[in-house]
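Slide 14.
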Amino acid sequence: MIGVEPGRLDDQQLMRELETIHRTRHDTLLHGSNEALHTHNERMAQLEGEYLRRHPRRPVARGRTRAGAREREAEAEGDAGTGAGVTDGAGVGA
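Slide 15: predicted structure.
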């Protein structure tokens, strides 16, 4: 195992580890060796699994579900045809 076993981390340490691994993910994917990517995948899965074990009923934002994403797409398609939702960049309707 790389690093401290996730179950031994307190909540603050676990969140810090998760933030770090997510922040470094893109660089590891683009520039890391196959071994580094494999190690990163394993550690990320361990940390995320521990987070989910501790928070099985975490709140899920509607927009982060498939149904919520479909609603956003439908709204965007509707707005594109009517000009609704278009602003001048300052939040004022154009």
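Speaker note: The CA atoms of residues 86 and 93 lie 6 Å apart.
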